[in-house]
């Protein structure tokens, strides 16, 4: 039994919306906890001449996660690695603009795939030398898994933009 294309598309869209919601929630939690923990550390150091050494490691890891989850979300909204000069110059030439947008998204997808591969290689190479962290004794390389995730998400989303842009272009050409 095969699923109808419309059902598959609905499932994929539901998964995408859920993933974006999870990323937004995680981003908010990271940001607010970073602000709270940093404020707590400053208060401890300035008023009590005391501070937690491990808190700096936690904040550093949170910054990395915040940056890469934010980059994945920026890619979802097409607010990443993009120069819109060509789109603005070709505002009235829809076909050429759509083609240049598809090319830019294709370039972004290719660059993200290469960066994903480099991130995986980075983790594989640094794994044997990775110390344990304050996060329940987890090795440091596990905290860096967000890097290949973010590049994979960017690659998939950029590829989806290429497909959607070309489908939209095909419809617009058919109408003309």
UniProtKB/TrEMBL annotation:
Predominant location: membrane
Full protein name: Tripartite ATP-independent periplasmic transporter DctQ component
Residues covered by the Tripartite ATP-independent periplasmic transporters DctQ component domain: 34-167
Gene Ontology CC: plasma membrane
Endpoints of the signal sequence: none
Example GO BP: C4-dicarboxylate transport
Annotated compartments: Cell inner membrane
Family, similarity comment: Belongs to the TRAP transporter small permease family.
UniProt organism field: Desulfosudis oleivorans (strain DSM 6200 / JCM 39069 / Hxd3)
Residue stretches spanning the membrane: 25-43, 63-81, 102-125, 145-166
Pfam family, one: DctQ
Recorded topology in the membrane: Multi-pass membrane protein
Keyword terms of this UniProt record: Cell inner membrane, Cell membrane, Membrane, Transmembrane, Transmembrane helix, Transport
The keyword Transport is annotated on this UniProt entry: yes
Gene Ontology molecular functions: transmembrane transporter activity
């Amino acid at each position: 039994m095969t699923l109808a294309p419309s059902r598959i598309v609905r499932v994929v869209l539901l998964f995408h919306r859920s993933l974006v919601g999870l990323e937004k929630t995680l981003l908010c939690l990271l940001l607010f906890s970073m602000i709270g923990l940093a404020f707590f550390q400053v208060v401890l150091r300035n008023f009590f001449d005391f501070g937690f050494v491990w808190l700096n490691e936690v904040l550093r890891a949170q910054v990395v996660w915040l940056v890469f989850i934010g980059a994945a979300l920026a890619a979802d909204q097409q607010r990443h690695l993009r120069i819109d000069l060509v789109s603005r110059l070709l505002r009235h030439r829809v076909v050429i603009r759509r083609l240049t947008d598809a090319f830019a998204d294709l370039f972004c997808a290719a660059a993200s795939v290469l960066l994903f591969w480099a991130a995986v290689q980075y983790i594989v190479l640094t794994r044997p030398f990775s110390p344990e962290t304050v996060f329940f004794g987890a090795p440091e390389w596990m905290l860096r898994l967000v890097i290949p995730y973010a590049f994979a998400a960017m690659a998939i989303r950029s590829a989806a933009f290429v497909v959607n842009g070309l489908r939209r272009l095909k419809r617009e050409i058919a109408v003309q």
